Amino acid sequence: MAVNRSSLVSQIAQRASLTKVQADAALSAFQDVLIESMKNGESVKVTGLMSVERVHRAARTGRNPHSKQIIQIPARDGVKITPGSTLKKAVAK
């Protein structure tokens, strides 16, 4: 089962003794900071949870799997998310 935004906000509010409005504002603020940092090329590290960084992907050739046609894939920036040690341990159990 996936956790959607509203259930995440509810759980944060309950665990942090906040109202749902306050929890939603905190989640929105985290999202805004993360997006702004990625736009500026900065990485975001939350110790134990994850690190998020902007990476450059070079231009390359690829193949359309349906038509087998060779295509040119342009260079672009992407996002790399690396799990932290606490998250890795929780998933490994």
Major β-sheet, in short?
3 strands, antiparallel
N-to-C series of helices and strands: HHEEEEEH
| First-last Cα distance | 18 Å
Shape: elongated
Question: What is the average of the pLDDT values?
Answer: 95
DSSP summary: helix tally:
3
Strand content: 25-35%
Counting DSSP E segments of at least 2 residues, the number of strands comes to 5
Question: Which percent range fits the helix content?
Answer: 40-55%
Strand order of the largest sheet: 1-2-5
Describe this structure in words.
There is one protein chain. The chain is of the alpha+beta class. Helix content is 42%, strand content 29%. It has helices spanning 5-15, 20-39, 85-92; strands spanning 44-46, 50-57, 60-63, 70-73, 76-83. The strands form 2 sheets. The protein has a 3-stranded antiparallel β-sheet with strand order 1-2-5. A two-stranded antiparallel sheet has the order 3-4. Helix 1 packs across helix 2 (20-39). The longest helix is centred in the N-terminal third of the chain and has 20 residues, at 20-39. The chain is elongated and about 55 Å long. The mean pLDDT is 95.
